[in-house]
Amino acid sequence: MSRVAVSKSQMRTIRDLIAAFPSESPHSAYVAQHGALPLYVSWGATIGITPKGKIVEWSTEGDYEGLRPADPSWVISALVQGSKKWPALTALIPPRPPTAHTCPDCHGTGRIHGVPENIADGVGCSCRGVGWIEPQVEERRSMLSRLRDRLPRLRRRDGP
Ligand SMILES: [Zn+2]
What we know:
Elements: H1 8-19, H2 28-34, E1 37-42, E2 45-49, E3 55-59, E4 68-69, H3 75-85, E5 101-102, H4 117-120, E6 132-133, H5 135-158
Antiparallel strand pairs: 1-2, 2-3, 3-4, 5-6
The structure holds zinc ion.
């Protein structure tokens, strides 16, 4: 289960943000249905947080009904994105572990250098936007990013 610890006052804050969620938003029906605040909106699915700190995911394309626990590897990204909109949630982002390294891709800023401001939120840094990487995760991520770098070439090769 993907979950973050929330204090009583944080629980109230999330509940208040859900209650005050703008009804004109395309997400308001999901917020009302699931009782969760959207943190990270991606193609076809949204990751949100419940007042109890459960990190959940719902489909916006009808791929499945109801809530699913979010993939644990997305929890930090979702909290980072969500706190840009709701700064009160910043306190829920896990603190940097003492063993963590500063992210080599963004040099600790959480944003990849050279990515224009307007699309930067949609382009996740390998550190998930926190600016640091846990040592055990670092090697796996750098391998993934090398694979990702090769992807456009592979796609082009398969193209028409
Ligand atoms: Zn980074």
